[in-house]
DNA sequence: GACCTGCTGCGGATTG
């Protein structure tokens, strides 16, 4: 064992030996000195299953092992399932070291929480929402029982960064630290995370005021091998004659996956259901036991857990057809291969998915199955360019050669979450002055891009809606509406969830469907990878009763789009410009496309060259004008919305802007005028967007702030103008 | 043309 190991407490060393470990991993050794020192924040950045959790807990437990009064370690996780996993893993350590471990989330028995409340000590494993409820309802107890807190550790920190829930978490950390103010030194924050695109910016996210230095511990680059390939499919226009691409994809999936252990990522719950039902049918036709199962967020927990256990046990061949639910940190072991059907949405998520495959001594395997429409006289430019295949190729190259992935977007205002935190602070203290709220949340806190004027406007608007009211002496207290919101069971989460129906078969809950899904009695549906007939729909208790049947289609689940990054579109352009998708390794080139994908690529390339797209960004076809910018969706959205403001009829397909009933000259002149207007801002553009209420409390945000927040998230006027000046004018 | 996450205290019935 190495030098750092010997600085751990003897009881911790004993536990390590009992695990049968002959050595600590590199990140575990590296983490010991800064965590034992206890005078700095630490970011541990490494892939899934690399021993990050132990890297924190070994030194942290070592230095707090004899603390018996109050909690010493606060562990925060985005998932209840992860808390349960960690609790199991810490159990043996807690037996040897006599450190209490308390899981604390909505599913944990009240009795267990009450017991820990009477005698707080050791480690608490909690969700942000449960911590919020403790701060609002029990802040006095929190102040006492966390008064000797030594560490705050956040698991899966990458899952929080840039999101409303992440902003909530940061605000909670600041509020907790403010509550424990008698402690002179701030409490070290430790973030455990998957590798991040902009790692050097993360210390500033973890703590906004830099009151503590931050060490970054990074896993050294692995030399693991990757096998990858892309298979193309042509979806025929005339379905009577030829087999649809979907069926050929399923046939190939069946032969690729049968008998092994695989994950199929299908990008939407609807497609996940279709594919898994089709593969199950094929098992039935071949008279073999079914080994294909769906996994997504609308399926009941019991079904998902059964599948996770089956994947982990490894004794039965199992393929999960899944959404991002199997991208996260839940323990399912490693699989033989990962298959992506349709183009991935981001390189970052593709990377997480790839990390799920590759057993000991075998390379990670990634396959992509991409279908494109057969061309006809009226095919769109996007189809002619074979844009989905091109995006898949670009993402593969960015992941494998350039080792690039999207950095988190850190510029959002999060007004909805700010409003939530204003209410939470007032609820926590009973009454508090406006300047105190501003200082704690904005000036010293994580909403530091919000100005005093914007904050005043928000408070004023909240007052008008009876969310809060000012009493004599200047204190703010909750208004009637504010009382109603904060007393609701639903208040502790900052993210929005739709109303849902429960789907039940033979008294067993299969999962949930959004209330606005169009489902009728007697209809046949696919759900949970099986085929059903809808027997009855009960709107009072929000249930749908189904019975087994044949046939049916999966229901439509709703969702918002996401933004493709500039770098991905630029890579797509570079590939066509250079004319080759191959990856140079040494003096040779790796080809990873099958023959269909290759001919699809050549069709797209041919159109690119014929249309002179290597030098033209704007083209005309009949009375349509197209802008092919090869830029990310923020810039595409900005240019499209600028044109909509000038009353053009505009639509966007995969980053290509289509303008109806016009000509090149007219559009170019308009764009020139737009560029000469230096006054136009992102918020001005947001004015013409109708549906801007996206986050949970957006209904209570004044229109002006809504425009600022939306503009910041979806537009970039400055860079769009730069691009237009360079390429169009 | 997407996905995911989480949440209380109390009253009343039932059981040992």
UniProtKB/TrEMBL annotation:
| Ranges in a coiled coil | none
Q: Which UniProt keywords apply?
A: ATP-binding, Helicase, Hydrolase, Nucleotide-binding
- Molecular function via GO: ATP binding; ATP hydrolysis activity; DNA binding; helicase activity
Q: Supply the Gene3D superfamilies for this chain.
A: P-loop containing nucleotide triphosphate hydrolases
Give the matching InterPro entries. ATP-dep_Helicase, DEAD/DEAH_box_helicase_dom, Helicase_ATP-bd, Helicase_C-like, P-loop_NTPase
Helicase C-terminal domain spans which residues? 249-401
Which SMART domains has this protein been placed in? DEXDc, HELICc
Domain of life according to the entry? Bacteria
Question: Which residues are in the Helicase ATP-binding domain?
Answer: 33-214
Could you tell me what this protein is called? DEAD/DEAH box helicase
Q: What species is given as this protein's source? A: Roseivirga seohaensis subsp. aquiponti
């Amino acid at each position: 064992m190495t030098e750092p190991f010997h600085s751990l407490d003897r009881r911790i060393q004993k536990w390590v030996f009992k695990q049968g470990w002959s050595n600590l991993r590199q990140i575990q050794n590296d983490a010991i000195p800064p965590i034992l020192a206890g005078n700095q924040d630490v970011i541990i950045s490494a892939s899934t299953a690399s021993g990050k959790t132990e890297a924190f807990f070994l030194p942290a437990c070592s230095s707090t092992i004899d603390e018996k009064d109050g909690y010493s370690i606060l562990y925060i996780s985005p998932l209840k399932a992860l808390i349960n996993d960690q609790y199991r893993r810490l159990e043996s350590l807690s037996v040897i070291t006599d450190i209490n471990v308390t899981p604390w989330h909505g599913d944990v028995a009240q009795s267990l929480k009450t017991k820990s409340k009477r005698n707080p000590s050791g480690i608490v494993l909690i969700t942000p929402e449960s911590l919020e409820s403790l701060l609002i309802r029990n802040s006095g107890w929190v102040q006492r029982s966390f008064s000797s807190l030594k560490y705050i550790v956040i698991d899966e920190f990458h899952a929080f960064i840039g999101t409303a829930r992440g902003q909530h978490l940061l605000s909670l950390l600041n509020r907790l630290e403010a509550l424990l103010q008698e402690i002179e030194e701030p409490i070290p924050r430790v973030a455990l995370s998957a590798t991040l695109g902009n790692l050097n910016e993360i210390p500033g996210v973890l703590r906004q005021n830099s009151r503590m230095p931050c060490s970054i511990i990074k896993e050294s680059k692995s030399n693991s091998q990757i096998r990858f390939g892309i298979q193309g499919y042509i979806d025929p226009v005339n379905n009577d004659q030829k087999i649809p691409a979907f069926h050929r994809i399923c046939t190939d999936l069946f032969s690729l996956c049968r008998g092994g252990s695989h994950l199929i990522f299908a990008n939407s719950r609807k497609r996940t259901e279709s594919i898994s039902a089709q593969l199950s049918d094929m098992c039935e036709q071949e008279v073999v036991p079914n080994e294909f199962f769906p996994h997504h967020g609308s399926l009941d927990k019991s079904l998902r857990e059964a599948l996770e256990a089956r994947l982990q046990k490894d004794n039965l061949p199992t393929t999960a057809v899944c959404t991002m639910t199997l991208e996260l940190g839940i323990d399912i072991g490693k699989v033989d291969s990962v298959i992506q059907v349709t183009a991935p949405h981001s390189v970052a998520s593709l990377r997480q998915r790839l990390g799920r495959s590759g057993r000991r001594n075998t390379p990670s395997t990634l396959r992509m199955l991409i279908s494109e429409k057969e061309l006809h006289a009226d095919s769109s430019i996007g189809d002619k360019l074979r844009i989905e295949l091109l995006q898949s190729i670009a993402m593969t190259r960015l992941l494998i050669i350039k080792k690039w992935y999207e950095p988190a977007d850190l510029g959002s205002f999060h007004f909805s979450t700010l409003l939530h935190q204003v209410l939470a602070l007032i609820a926590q203290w009973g009454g508090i002055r406006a300047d105190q709220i501003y200082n704690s949340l904005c000036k010293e806190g994580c909403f530091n891009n919000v100005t005093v004027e914007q904050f005043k406007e928000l408070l004023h608007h909240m007052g008008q809606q009876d969310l809060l009211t000012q009493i004599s002496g200047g204190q703010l207290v909750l208004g009637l509406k504010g009382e109603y919101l904060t007393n609701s069971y639903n208040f502790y989460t900052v993210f929005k969830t739709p109303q849902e129906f429960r789907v039940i078969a033979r008294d067993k809950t299969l999962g949930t469907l959004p209330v606005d899904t169009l489902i009728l009695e007697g209809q046949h549906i696919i759900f949970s990878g099986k085929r059903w007939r809808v027997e009855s729909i009960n709107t009072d208790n929000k249930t749908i009763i189904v019975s087994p049947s044949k046939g049916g289609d999966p229901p439509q689940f709703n969702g918002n789009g996401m933004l493709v990054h500039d770098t991905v579109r630029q890579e797509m352009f570079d590939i066509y410009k250079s004319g080759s998708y191959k990856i140079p390794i040494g003096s040779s080139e790796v080809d990873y496309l099958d023959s269909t994908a290759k001919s699809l690529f050549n069709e797209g390339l041919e159109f690119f060259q014929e249309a002179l797209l290597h030098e033209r960004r704007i083209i005309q076809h009949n009375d349509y004008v197209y802008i092919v910018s090869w830029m990310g969706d923020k810039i595409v959205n900005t240019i499209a919305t600028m044109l909509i403001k000038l009353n053009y009829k505009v639509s966007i397909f995969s980053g290509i802007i289509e303008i109806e009933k016009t000509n090149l000259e007219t559009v170019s002149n308009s764009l020139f005028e737009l560029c000469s207007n230096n006054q136009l801002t992102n918020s001005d553009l947001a004015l013409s967007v109708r549906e801007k209420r996206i986050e949970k409390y957006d209904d209570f945000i004044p229109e002006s702030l809504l425009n600022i927040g939306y503009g910041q998230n979806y537009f970039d006027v400055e860079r769009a103008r730069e691009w237009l000046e360079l390429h169009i004018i």
